[in-house]
Amino acid sequence: MTVIDILTRVDAICQKYDKYDVDKLNGANVAGDDPFARLYASVDADINQCVEKAETAKQEKNRAAVVALNAEIRRTKAKLLEEDLPKLQRLAVKKVKGLTREEIATRSDLVAALPDRIQSIPDGSSTATKKNGIWGASGSRTGGAIKFDSTADGNFDDEYFKGTEESNQFRGEYEMRRMKQDEGLDVIGEGLETLKNMASDMNEELDRQVPLMDEMDDKVDRANADLKNTNVRLKETILQLRSSRNFCIDIILLCVILGIAAYLYNVLKK
Amino acid sequence: MASSSDPDKLMSKADKLTKLSFTRWNADWKSATSLYEQAAIAYRFRKDNEKAKDAFEKASKGQEMISSPWDAAKHMESAAALAKELGYWNEVSDFYHRASELYRECGRPQPASDALAKGASALEEKSPEEAIKMYDEACSVLEEDGKEQMAFDLYRAAAALYIKMEKYSDAAAFFLRLGSAADKCNAINSQCKAYLSAIIIYLYAHDFQQAQKCYNDCSEVQAFLNSDQNRCATKLLSAYEEGDAEEIKRISQSSAFNHLDHMVIRLARKLPTGDLQAIKKADDGEESLDEDDLT
To answer: How does it sit in the membrane (chain B) (predicted)?
Structure first.
């Protein structure tokens, strides 16, 4: 037998013996014609569900799952508070056939007690403050990037996100930090513009000096060549001057002059 | 020949050498020049500016005679500097002009324009007209030689002088000349700054039409079109069209303006001048004409 078969058989058997289900009959009877009782029962069931989810959330390790659970809890809470509660209040006041005055009073009391019960369901906003504090301290960048960047700023559906003070404060902090970052970036931008201006001025100045350097290079090369030329010629001249033939001629002439001087001296002495 | 350190004696000796008389048919400029130079240096050392100036003049003449225009020009410049100290302003102008001519004779246009620039800055206080003329000449000398890059500073100085004299259209014209010179040298930053300065000057002079025309002309230039200064100019002109004084003030504080010349920044800070509404009305009138005119 396949699972499907088992399921269909079980369903058929349940339907056959439904009339013997005491609890269900009782529940149906009790809630049967009375809209208030029905609504109250459903609200009660929702609240119990929320409490259970809160319990699971507390045990849950996975952050994303926790967040999802909390979001659902909040959603249900909002729905209960906004829609069901007013209806219950209206129904509680209505007179119903077969109910005593005390019962009506009890109903009003029950309805009055409901908001507190609903609010008291933990939906993770109180425990989140500690985490928010840590996130805030570590810099809004990571928090901002993770939380807000994908959703357009401020377009939060009321059903999905109920602004508590902590989250509003966090948003405010985020905005302030973003403003400060913008200011800082502005300052950096101005500094960069000054640098750019200086750099392009330097560029132009260097461009101006390139032809001057080329000219200077030419002139210095020419002067260098001239100097070399002159040096070589000077060397040649000096060598010529110092050549041995000239030297010998110098010495001979010197001796001749000395001889003439000595002769004259001798002549005059006599 | 450091024989007589007395400059007066040197001067009289040199004069005697140069004066033509019955016994002397050719003046001996060479020795005379060296004597004059020595005398001039001695006078300058003694702070006798008047005599030093004369000595330099004569030395320069001597150098001319022995055909060395470079030295002649140098002496002329020294004479002019001394004349500036003495306060003989027309002599200053004459000397610097002569020096620049001599430099041009040597075939060195840059020192020529330098001499004119020095003269112009010396005369800025006393006779700005003359100074402007000298700046103009200096710039044209460089332009002829194709060395506009050296002329940027001269253009800026001339424009600043015009602004001081409150001749705004002339100042703007000078900036446009700077722009075209920069274009030739491919100095894009200077070019854009020059165009922006011209636009600001026109706006300061309440001449919105001219500013618009100027802007349109400058937009033809590709380099200007892509620059930051162009964006600033667009924003400024659109703010003017809307007559939004706050916007104009804000734009004038923006950083693109801080890199312009000091005089221009001062003008920009004083924007908007005059009646924005009048400008706006004039502009609207024009626009309505354009709308009806379907040609």
So the answer is: Peripheral membrane protein
If one counts every other C-beta atom within 10 angstroms of the C-beta of residue B64, the result is: 20
- Per-residue pLDDT tens for B192-230? 888 888 888 888 887 788 888 888 887 877 777 778 788
Range ranked top by mean pLDDT from A138-142, A172-176, B6-10: A172-176
Q: What percent of chain A has pLDDT over 90?
A: 30
SS3 B206: coil
Is A208 in Cβ contact with B186 (below 8 Å)?
Answer: no
Task: Give me the mean pLDDT over the B60-68 stretch.
Answer: 88
**A226/B contact by beta carbon, under 8 A:** no
Q: Does A208 touch chain B (CB under 8 A)?
A: yes
Q: Is A203 an interface residue toward B (CB < 8 Å)?
A: yes
Q: Which domain holds residue B239?
A: 167-283
3-state SS string for B244-286: CHHHHHHHHHCHHHHHCCHHHHHHHHHCCCCCHHHHHHHHHHH
Q: Please check whether residue B135 is in contact with residue B161, taking contact to mean a CB–CB distance below 8 angstroms.
A: yes
Q: What pLDDT was estimated at residue A257?
A: 96
Q: Do B259 and A193 touch (CB under 8 A)?
A: yes
Contacts (Cβ under 8 Å, ≥6 apart) of B253: B269
Q: How far is A190 from chain B (nearest CA, A)?
A: 6
Cβ-based contacts under 8 A for chains A and B: 27
ipTM above 0.85, yes or no: no
Q: Is A210 on the interface with B (CB under 8 A)?
A: no
pLDDT interval class at A244 (50, 70, 90)? confident
Find the CATH number of the domain harbouring B184: 1.25.40.10
Write out chain A residues lying below 8 Å of B228, CB-based: 193
**A56-99 residue pLDDT tens:** 888 877 777 777 788 788 888 888 888 888 888 888 777 666 66
Q: Which residue does chain A place closest to B110, by CA atoms?
A: A212
> What distance in Å separates the CA atoms of residue B199 and residue B214, rounded to the nearest whole number?
6
| Most B CBs within 10 Å, among A192, A196, A197, to test the B interface | A197
**Are both B174 and B270 inside the same structural domain?**
yes
